[in-house]
Design goal:
Distance between the termini: 23 Å
Oligomer: single chain
Helix content: 10-25%
Order of helices and strands: EEHEEE
């Protein structure tokens, strides 16, 4: 199974939100932000559905993978 992608989105006006996305949802978000078109992109996250207006996104930060201690 492909690993999920943790992202933080910044919006015009200063708001932010964080989400954990599937690789397919990450691809959809990246393509939508690259185009910066009107409308919304619907993203399925671990916490539910997130609707994002790409034209309002100022940054997308991919979080590094968490360090895990294993025994």
């Amino acid at each position: 199974m492909a690993e999920s992608v943790r992202v933080e989105l910044g919006f015009i006006g200063g708001g932010t939100t964080a989400a954990t996305l599937s690789p397919a949802a990450w691809t959809s978000l990246k393509q939508a932000v690259d185009k910066a078109g009107e409308g919304t992109v619907e993203l399925e996250t671990e916490a539910g559905t997130l609707y994002v207006r790409p034209s309002q996104v100022t940054f997308v930060r991919m979080q590094p993978k968490e360090a895990r201690v294993g025994f």
